[in-house]
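Risk register update: the risk of archive-format incompatibility is retired. Evidence:
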Amino acid sequence: MGMALLLIFLSRLPFLLPGFGAEEDAWGLYYIARKVATTGIYEVSRLPGHPLQEYIYLLIWPLGAPAFNTLTALFSTAAAGFFMIALKQIGVPRYIVAGIVLSFVPVVYINSCNAMDYMWAMAFLMGAFYLVTRKKWWAAGLLVGLATACRITSLAMLLPFAAMIVNFSDRSSIRAAMKMSVAATATGALFYLPALVAHGPAFFGYTAQVPVSWPKAFFNATIGVWGVIGLVDLVVAAIVAMRMARTTDAAMPAGLRRACVAAFAVFILAYLALPQKAAFFIPALPFAVILMAWYLPGQFLTVFSFSMIFSSFFLGINLNDERRGTPGSAWSFDFRLAGKDLVIDALQGPVIADNIRRQNKMAFSANALDRIESLESDTPSVVIAGFWSSDILAKTYALPRNVRLVYYVPEDTLATLHHSGSKLYYLPEQNDYNDRAFEGAFTDRYAEPLMEP
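Archived output:
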Protein backbone atom coordinates (compact mmCIF):
# COMPACT_ATOMS: atom_id res chain seq x y z
CA MET A 1 0.00 0.00 0.00
CA GLY A 2 2.88 2.36 0.75
CA MET A 3 4.18 2.13 -2.81
CA ALA A 4 0.71 2.79 -4.22
CA LEU A 5 0.35 5.92 -2.08
CA LEU A 6 3.81 7.11 -3.12
CA LEU A 7 2.82 6.63 -6.77
CA ILE A 8 -0.37 8.61 -6.21
CA PHE A 9 1.51 11.51 -4.59
CA LEU A 10 4.28 11.57 -7.18
CA SER A 11 1.73 11.58 -10.01
CA ARG A 12 0.47 14.94 -8.71
CA LEU A 13 3.83 16.70 -8.66
CA PRO A 14 4.04 17.65 -12.38
CA PHE A 15 0.68 19.45 -12.15
CA LEU A 16 1.03 21.48 -8.96
CA LEU A 17 1.85 24.58 -10.98
CA PRO A 18 1.07 27.03 -12.56
CA GLY A 19 -0.73 29.13 -10.00
CA PHE A 20 -3.40 28.00 -7.56
CA GLY A 21 -5.68 26.28 -10.06
CA ALA A 22 -8.16 26.91 -12.85
CA GLU A 23 -11.06 27.68 -10.48
CA GLU A 24 -11.56 31.26 -9.35
CA ASP A 25 -12.12 30.13 -5.74
CA ALA A 26 -8.60 28.70 -5.61
CA TRP A 27 -7.19 32.17 -6.22
CA GLY A 28 -9.71 33.63 -3.78
CA LEU A 29 -8.37 31.42 -1.00
CA TYR A 30 -4.88 32.84 -1.51
CA TYR A 31 -6.09 36.42 -1.92
CA ILE A 32 -8.12 36.37 1.30
CA ALA A 33 -5.35 34.62 3.26
CA ARG A 34 -2.96 37.37 2.21
CA LYS A 35 -5.52 40.10 2.91
CA VAL A 36 -6.35 38.83 6.41
CA ALA A 37 -2.67 38.39 7.23
CA THR A 38 -1.77 41.91 6.11
CA THR A 39 -4.82 43.74 7.50
CA GLY A 40 -5.63 41.70 10.59
CA ILE A 41 -9.35 41.82 9.70
CA TYR A 42 -11.09 38.44 9.48
CA GLU A 43 -12.77 37.70 6.17
CA VAL A 44 -13.90 34.59 4.31
CA SER A 45 -12.96 33.77 0.73
CA ARG A 46 -16.58 33.09 -0.24
CA LEU A 47 -19.50 32.70 2.16
CA PRO A 48 -19.99 30.53 4.11
CA GLY A 49 -16.23 30.01 3.89
CA HIS A 50 -13.77 27.16 4.41
CA PRO A 51 -12.47 28.07 7.88
CA LEU A 52 -10.06 25.23 8.63
CA GLN A 53 -8.41 25.50 5.23
CA GLU A 54 -8.43 29.30 5.41
CA TYR A 55 -6.74 29.30 8.83
CA ILE A 56 -3.98 27.01 7.58
CA TYR A 57 -3.48 29.07 4.43
CA LEU A 58 -3.32 32.16 6.62
CA LEU A 59 -0.18 30.68 8.23
CA ILE A 60 1.60 29.78 5.00
CA TRP A 61 0.37 32.37 2.49
CA PRO A 62 3.88 33.83 1.82
CA LEU A 63 4.92 30.42 0.42
CA GLY A 64 2.35 30.78 -2.37
CA ALA A 65 1.05 28.24 -4.84
CA PRO A 66 3.74 25.53 -4.40
CA ALA A 67 2.90 25.17 -0.70
CA PHE A 68 -0.87 25.45 -1.15
CA ASN A 69 -1.02 22.88 -3.93
CA THR A 70 1.44 20.48 -2.30
CA LEU A 71 -0.72 20.43 0.83
CA THR A 72 -3.71 19.50 -1.32
CA ALA A 73 -1.71 16.71 -2.96
CA LEU A 74 -0.82 15.39 0.49
CA PHE A 75 -4.45 15.50 1.58
CA SER A 76 -5.49 13.66 -1.58
CA THR A 77 -2.91 10.97 -0.85
CA ALA A 78 -4.19 10.69 2.71
CA ALA A 79 -7.74 10.34 1.37
CA ALA A 80 -6.62 7.41 -0.79
CA GLY A 81 -4.81 5.83 2.17
CA PHE A 82 -7.82 6.05 4.50
CA PHE A 83 -10.06 4.73 1.73
CA MET A 84 -7.79 1.73 1.23
CA ILE A 85 -7.55 0.78 4.90
CA ALA A 86 -11.30 1.25 5.33
CA LEU A 87 -11.94 -1.20 2.48
CA LYS A 88 -9.40 -3.60 3.98
CA GLN A 89 -11.26 -3.37 7.28
CA ILE A 90 -14.55 -4.13 5.51
CA GLY A 91 -13.02 -7.12 3.75
CA VAL A 92 -12.60 -5.91 0.17
CA PRO A 93 -9.64 -7.95 -1.16
CA ARG A 94 -8.57 -5.53 -3.94
CA TYR A 95 -8.55 -2.46 -1.74
CA ILE A 96 -5.27 -1.11 -3.14
CA VAL A 97 -6.53 -1.21 -6.74
CA ALA A 98 -9.74 0.47 -5.58
CA GLY A 99 -7.71 3.29 -4.03
CA ILE A 100 -5.83 3.77 -7.29
CA VAL A 101 -9.12 3.88 -9.22
CA LEU A 102 -10.47 6.59 -6.93
CA SER A 103 -7.27 8.66 -7.08
CA PHE A 104 -7.16 8.70 -10.88
CA VAL A 105 -10.78 9.60 -11.57
CA PRO A 106 -10.16 12.81 -13.57
CA VAL A 107 -12.14 15.16 -11.33
CA VAL A 108 -10.31 13.82 -8.27
CA TYR A 109 -6.92 14.04 -9.99
CA ILE A 110 -7.50 17.65 -11.08
CA ASN A 111 -8.60 18.75 -7.63
CA SER A 112 -5.63 17.01 -6.03
CA CYS A 113 -3.31 19.50 -7.74
CA ASN A 114 -4.81 22.87 -6.87
CA ALA A 115 -5.61 24.96 -3.78
CA MET A 116 -9.31 24.00 -3.62
CA ASP A 117 -11.01 22.45 -0.62
CA TYR A 118 -12.51 19.31 -2.15
CA MET A 119 -9.69 16.90 -1.37
CA TRP A 120 -9.04 18.41 2.06
CA ALA A 121 -12.61 17.56 2.96
CA MET A 122 -12.31 14.16 1.29
CA ALA A 123 -9.27 13.24 3.39
CA PHE A 124 -11.18 13.88 6.62
CA LEU A 125 -14.27 12.08 5.31
CA MET A 126 -12.29 9.00 4.35
CA GLY A 127 -10.62 9.10 7.76
CA ALA A 128 -14.09 9.19 9.29
CA PHE A 129 -15.14 6.30 7.04
CA TYR A 130 -12.26 4.21 8.36
CA LEU A 131 -13.15 5.10 11.96
CA VAL A 132 -16.78 4.11 11.32
CA THR A 133 -15.57 0.67 10.25
CA ARG A 134 -13.64 0.56 13.56
CA LYS A 135 -16.70 1.72 15.54
CA LYS A 136 -14.94 4.84 16.81
CA TRP A 137 -18.05 7.01 16.79
CA TRP A 138 -16.84 10.16 18.55
CA ALA A 139 -13.59 10.23 16.56
CA ALA A 140 -15.46 9.64 13.30
CA GLY A 141 -17.76 12.54 14.11
CA LEU A 142 -14.79 14.76 14.87
CA LEU A 143 -13.32 14.08 11.42
CA VAL A 144 -16.66 14.71 9.71
CA GLY A 145 -16.68 18.02 11.59
CA LEU A 146 -13.19 18.85 10.32
CA ALA A 147 -14.30 17.97 6.79
CA THR A 148 -17.25 20.31 7.28
CA ALA A 149 -14.82 23.02 8.40
CA CYS A 150 -13.15 22.66 5.00
CA ARG A 151 -16.37 22.37 3.01
CA ILE A 152 -19.73 22.87 4.68
CA THR A 153 -21.60 20.36 2.49
CA SER A 154 -19.44 17.59 3.98
CA LEU A 155 -21.86 17.48 6.91
CA ALA A 156 -24.27 15.70 4.56
CA MET A 157 -21.98 12.66 4.72
CA LEU A 158 -23.47 11.95 8.14
CA LEU A 159 -26.46 10.44 6.35
CA PRO A 160 -24.50 7.72 4.46
CA PHE A 161 -22.43 6.97 7.56
CA ALA A 162 -25.57 6.74 9.68
CA ALA A 163 -27.20 4.49 7.08
CA MET A 164 -24.15 2.27 7.32
CA ILE A 165 -24.37 1.71 11.06
CA VAL A 166 -28.01 2.16 12.10
CA ASN A 167 -30.22 -0.86 12.64
CA PHE A 168 -33.54 0.37 14.00
CA SER A 169 -33.98 -2.81 16.01
CA ASP A 170 -30.70 -2.06 17.80
CA ARG A 171 -30.75 0.99 20.06
CA SER A 172 -26.98 0.96 20.46
CA SER A 173 -26.55 1.62 16.72
CA ILE A 174 -28.88 4.63 16.96
CA ARG A 175 -26.88 5.94 19.91
CA ALA A 176 -23.69 5.46 17.88
CA ALA A 177 -25.08 7.55 15.03
CA MET A 178 -26.16 10.24 17.48
CA LYS A 179 -22.68 10.39 19.03
CA MET A 180 -21.13 10.77 15.60
CA SER A 181 -23.65 13.45 14.60
CA VAL A 182 -23.20 15.48 17.78
CA ALA A 183 -19.40 15.43 17.45
CA ALA A 184 -19.55 16.41 13.77
CA THR A 185 -22.08 19.21 14.21
CA ALA A 186 -20.35 20.69 17.25
CA THR A 187 -16.93 20.62 15.60
CA GLY A 188 -18.15 22.17 12.36
CA ALA A 189 -20.17 24.85 14.18
CA LEU A 190 -17.15 25.83 16.24
CA PHE A 191 -15.12 26.57 13.11
CA TYR A 192 -17.90 28.54 11.41
CA LEU A 193 -18.73 30.63 14.48
CA PRO A 194 -16.31 33.51 13.63
CA ALA A 195 -17.81 33.87 10.14
CA LEU A 196 -21.34 33.77 11.55
CA VAL A 197 -20.49 36.47 14.09
CA ALA A 198 -18.69 38.60 11.49
CA HIS A 199 -21.33 38.40 8.75
CA GLY A 200 -24.58 37.77 10.61
CA PRO A 201 -27.50 36.75 8.36
CA ALA A 202 -25.31 37.23 5.25
CA PHE A 203 -23.51 34.05 6.34
CA PHE A 204 -26.36 32.08 4.81
CA GLY A 205 -26.17 33.93 1.47
CA TYR A 206 -23.85 33.41 -1.45
CA THR A 207 -22.45 35.30 -4.41
CA ALA A 208 -24.80 35.55 -7.40
CA GLN A 209 -24.58 32.35 -9.42
CA VAL A 210 -24.94 32.29 -13.18
CA PRO A 211 -27.54 29.66 -14.13
CA VAL A 212 -26.04 26.58 -15.78
CA SER A 213 -27.70 25.10 -18.85
CA TRP A 214 -28.84 21.51 -18.53
CA PRO A 215 -26.52 20.30 -21.33
CA LYS A 216 -23.57 21.73 -19.41
CA ALA A 217 -24.87 20.34 -16.12
CA PHE A 218 -25.17 16.89 -17.71
CA PHE A 219 -21.68 17.19 -19.17
CA ASN A 220 -20.24 18.16 -15.77
CA ALA A 221 -21.95 15.22 -14.06
CA THR A 222 -20.69 12.67 -16.58
CA ILE A 223 -17.66 13.46 -18.75
CA GLY A 224 -16.66 16.24 -16.34
CA VAL A 225 -16.30 13.65 -13.58
CA TRP A 226 -15.00 10.56 -15.37
CA GLY A 227 -13.60 11.82 -18.68
CA VAL A 228 -14.61 10.29 -22.01
CA ILE A 229 -12.66 7.03 -21.66
CA GLY A 230 -13.59 6.67 -18.01
CA LEU A 231 -17.28 7.22 -18.65
CA VAL A 232 -17.41 4.55 -21.36
CA ASP A 233 -15.56 2.09 -19.14
CA LEU A 234 -17.78 3.00 -16.19
CA VAL A 235 -20.87 2.01 -18.17
CA VAL A 236 -19.25 -1.29 -19.15
CA ALA A 237 -18.06 -1.90 -15.58
CA ALA A 238 -21.51 -1.12 -14.19
CA ILE A 239 -23.11 -3.67 -16.53
CA VAL A 240 -20.57 -6.31 -15.53
CA ALA A 241 -20.97 -5.45 -11.83
CA MET A 242 -24.76 -5.75 -12.01
CA ARG A 243 -24.48 -9.15 -13.65
CA MET A 244 -21.96 -10.28 -11.02
CA ALA A 245 -24.19 -8.95 -8.22
CA ARG A 246 -26.87 -11.45 -9.27
CA THR A 247 -24.50 -14.41 -9.31
CA THR A 248 -21.92 -13.76 -6.58
CA ASP A 249 -22.07 -15.69 -3.33
CA ALA A 250 -20.60 -12.80 -1.32
CA ALA A 251 -23.47 -10.33 -0.87
CA MET A 252 -22.52 -6.81 0.11
CA PRO A 253 -23.33 -6.07 3.78
CA ALA A 254 -26.68 -4.33 4.09
CA GLY A 255 -25.21 -1.35 5.93
CA LEU A 256 -22.60 -0.71 3.26
CA ARG A 257 -25.21 -1.04 0.52
CA ARG A 258 -27.45 1.48 2.31
CA ALA A 259 -24.48 3.85 2.65
CA CYS A 260 -23.84 3.69 -1.11
CA VAL A 261 -27.48 4.41 -1.93
CA ALA A 262 -27.63 7.26 0.60
CA ALA A 263 -24.44 8.86 -0.73
CA PHE A 264 -25.69 8.79 -4.31
CA ALA A 265 -29.10 10.16 -3.30
CA VAL A 266 -27.68 13.00 -1.18
CA PHE A 267 -25.15 14.27 -3.68
CA ILE A 268 -27.27 13.78 -6.81
CA LEU A 269 -30.09 15.80 -5.21
CA ALA A 270 -27.61 18.44 -4.05
CA TYR A 271 -26.18 18.67 -7.56
CA LEU A 272 -29.60 19.00 -9.15
CA ALA A 273 -30.30 21.90 -6.79
CA LEU A 274 -27.07 23.68 -7.77
CA PRO A 275 -25.52 22.00 -10.85
CA GLN A 276 -22.43 24.20 -11.04
CA LYS A 277 -19.34 21.97 -10.93
CA ALA A 278 -18.29 18.38 -11.58
CA ALA A 279 -16.29 18.46 -8.33
CA PHE A 280 -19.54 18.53 -6.33
CA PHE A 281 -19.73 14.77 -6.95
CA ILE A 282 -16.36 14.01 -5.34
CA PRO A 283 -17.77 12.90 -1.93
CA ALA A 284 -19.97 10.27 -3.62
CA LEU A 285 -17.21 8.78 -5.79
CA PRO A 286 -15.73 6.47 -3.11
CA PHE A 287 -19.08 4.69 -2.90
CA ALA A 288 -19.19 4.18 -6.68
CA VAL A 289 -15.71 2.66 -6.48
CA ILE A 290 -16.78 0.46 -3.55
CA LEU A 291 -19.51 -1.07 -5.70
CA MET A 292 -16.99 -1.76 -8.46
CA ALA A 293 -14.44 -3.20 -6.06
CA TRP A 294 -17.02 -5.45 -4.45
CA TYR A 295 -18.64 -6.88 -7.56
CA LEU A 296 -16.09 -6.68 -10.39
CA PRO A 297 -13.77 -9.65 -10.96
CA GLY A 298 -10.14 -8.82 -10.21
CA GLN A 299 -9.03 -8.47 -13.81
CA PHE A 300 -11.95 -6.16 -14.61
CA LEU A 301 -11.12 -3.88 -11.67
CA THR A 302 -7.47 -3.73 -12.79
CA VAL A 303 -8.54 -2.78 -16.31
CA PHE A 304 -10.87 -0.19 -14.81
CA SER A 305 -7.96 1.33 -12.89
CA PHE A 306 -5.91 1.65 -16.09
CA SER A 307 -8.89 3.20 -17.87
CA MET A 308 -9.06 5.90 -15.20
CA ILE A 309 -5.38 6.71 -15.73
CA PHE A 310 -5.82 6.92 -19.51
CA SER A 311 -9.03 8.91 -19.08
CA SER A 312 -7.14 11.58 -17.13
CA PHE A 313 -4.57 12.11 -19.88
CA PHE A 314 -6.21 11.34 -23.22
CA LEU A 315 -9.33 12.10 -25.28
CA GLY A 316 -10.71 15.26 -23.74
CA ILE A 317 -13.67 17.41 -24.70
CA ASN A 318 -12.62 20.95 -23.87
CA LEU A 319 -13.67 24.56 -24.29
CA ASN A 320 -11.91 26.01 -27.33
CA ASP A 321 -10.97 29.38 -25.88
CA GLU A 322 -7.58 31.05 -25.56
CA ARG A 323 -8.50 32.88 -22.35
CA ARG A 324 -9.99 30.12 -20.20
CA GLY A 325 -10.00 27.03 -22.37
CA THR A 326 -7.63 24.80 -24.30
CA PRO A 327 -7.27 25.28 -28.05
CA GLY A 328 -6.75 21.90 -29.65
CA SER A 329 -3.57 20.08 -30.56
CA ALA A 330 -2.77 18.58 -33.96
CA TRP A 331 -4.85 15.54 -32.97
CA SER A 332 -8.15 17.35 -32.48
CA PHE A 333 -11.21 18.68 -34.25
CA ASP A 334 -13.51 21.56 -33.42
CA PHE A 335 -17.29 21.62 -33.14
CA ARG A 336 -20.00 23.81 -31.67
CA LEU A 337 -22.62 22.68 -29.16
CA ALA A 338 -25.13 24.63 -27.05
CA GLY A 339 -23.58 27.91 -28.15
CA LYS A 340 -20.04 26.93 -27.13
CA ASP A 341 -16.96 26.33 -29.26
CA LEU A 342 -15.59 22.96 -28.18
CA VAL A 343 -12.74 20.70 -29.22
CA ILE A 344 -12.29 16.94 -29.01
CA ASP A 345 -8.60 16.32 -28.48
CA ALA A 346 -6.94 12.91 -28.39
CA LEU A 347 -3.83 14.29 -26.66
CA GLN A 348 -5.41 16.62 -24.12
CA GLY A 349 -7.39 14.68 -21.56
CA PRO A 350 -8.94 16.42 -18.53
CA VAL A 351 -5.75 16.72 -16.46
CA ILE A 352 -3.63 18.00 -19.35
CA ALA A 353 -6.39 20.39 -20.42
CA ASP A 354 -6.75 21.71 -16.87
CA ASN A 355 -3.03 22.47 -16.73
CA ILE A 356 -3.18 24.37 -20.04
CA ARG A 357 -6.30 26.20 -18.88
CA ARG A 358 -4.45 27.34 -15.77
CA GLN A 359 -1.67 28.82 -17.87
CA ASN A 360 -4.09 30.57 -20.21
CA LYS A 361 -6.13 32.03 -17.38
CA MET A 362 -3.01 33.34 -15.64
CA ALA A 363 -1.86 35.03 -18.84
CA PHE A 364 -5.23 36.66 -19.46
CA SER A 365 -5.71 37.89 -15.88
CA ALA A 366 -2.22 39.45 -15.99
CA ASN A 367 -3.17 41.26 -19.21
CA ALA A 368 -6.47 42.35 -17.66
CA LEU A 369 -4.64 43.78 -14.65
CA ASP A 370 -2.32 45.75 -16.95
CA ARG A 371 -5.36 47.22 -18.70
CA ILE A 372 -7.07 48.08 -15.40
CA GLU A 373 -3.95 49.82 -14.13
CA SER A 374 -3.88 51.95 -17.28
CA LEU A 375 -7.33 53.47 -16.73
CA GLU A 376 -7.50 57.25 -16.40
CA SER A 377 -6.57 58.29 -12.90
CA ASP A 378 -8.97 61.24 -12.71
CA THR A 379 -12.16 59.25 -13.46
CA PRO A 380 -13.82 56.83 -11.00
CA SER A 381 -14.02 53.46 -12.77
CA VAL A 382 -15.90 50.28 -11.99
CA VAL A 383 -14.98 47.03 -13.74
CA ILE A 384 -17.34 44.06 -13.81
CA ALA A 385 -14.76 41.29 -13.49
CA GLY A 386 -16.99 38.34 -12.58
CA PHE A 387 -15.11 35.07 -12.33
CA TRP A 388 -11.84 36.88 -13.09
CA SER A 389 -12.01 38.90 -9.87
CA SER A 390 -9.95 36.66 -7.60
CA ASP A 391 -7.36 35.91 -10.28
CA ILE A 392 -6.77 39.64 -10.77
CA LEU A 393 -6.83 40.68 -7.12
CA ALA A 394 -4.39 37.93 -6.19
CA LYS A 395 -1.85 39.41 -8.60
CA THR A 396 -1.68 42.85 -7.01
CA TYR A 397 -1.49 44.33 -3.54
CA ALA A 398 -3.51 47.41 -4.53
CA LEU A 399 -5.60 48.48 -7.49
CA PRO A 400 -5.43 52.11 -8.65
CA ARG A 401 -7.31 54.33 -6.19
CA ASN A 402 -9.90 55.29 -8.80
CA VAL A 403 -10.72 51.69 -9.80
CA ARG A 404 -13.11 49.27 -8.14
CA LEU A 405 -13.64 45.67 -9.20
CA VAL A 406 -17.10 44.17 -8.77
CA TYR A 407 -18.32 40.61 -9.29
CA TYR A 408 -21.83 40.68 -10.76
CA VAL A 409 -24.20 43.55 -9.98
CA PRO A 410 -27.93 44.12 -10.57
CA GLU A 411 -29.32 46.76 -12.89
CA ASP A 412 -30.25 49.24 -10.17
CA THR A 413 -26.67 49.24 -8.87
CA LEU A 414 -25.29 49.79 -12.36
CA ALA A 415 -27.75 52.64 -12.90
CA THR A 416 -26.71 54.28 -9.63
CA LEU A 417 -23.03 54.00 -10.48
CA HIS A 418 -23.64 55.37 -13.97
CA HIS A 419 -25.60 58.37 -12.70
CA SER A 420 -22.91 59.08 -10.10
CA GLY A 421 -20.40 59.70 -12.88
CA SER A 422 -18.44 56.46 -12.68
CA LYS A 423 -17.13 54.98 -15.89
CA LEU A 424 -18.35 51.36 -16.18
CA TYR A 425 -16.48 48.57 -17.93
CA TYR A 426 -16.69 44.80 -18.19
CA LEU A 427 -14.16 42.12 -19.02
CA PRO A 428 -14.80 39.80 -21.99
CA GLU A 429 -18.03 37.78 -21.65
CA GLN A 430 -18.86 39.32 -18.28
CA ASN A 431 -21.65 41.46 -19.73
CA ASP A 432 -23.42 38.26 -20.75
CA TYR A 433 -22.73 36.55 -17.43
CA ASN A 434 -23.89 39.60 -15.50
CA ASP A 435 -27.17 39.63 -17.43
CA ARG A 436 -27.66 35.91 -16.83
CA ALA A 437 -26.91 36.22 -13.12
CA PHE A 438 -29.86 38.60 -12.75
CA GLU A 439 -32.00 37.24 -15.58
CA GLY A 440 -31.98 40.46 -17.57
CA ALA A 441 -30.46 42.23 -20.55
CA PHE A 442 -29.11 45.52 -19.28
CA THR A 443 -25.34 45.48 -18.78
CA ASP A 444 -24.44 46.87 -22.22
CA ARG A 445 -26.70 49.89 -21.60
CA TYR A 446 -24.41 51.09 -18.80
CA ALA A 447 -20.98 49.53 -19.37
CA GLU A 448 -18.52 49.12 -22.21
CA PRO A 449 -15.86 46.46 -22.87
CA LEU A 450 -12.51 47.05 -21.21
CA MET A 451 -10.65 44.74 -23.59
CA GLU A 452 -11.11 43.28 -27.04
CA PRO A 453 -13.37 40.18 -26.96
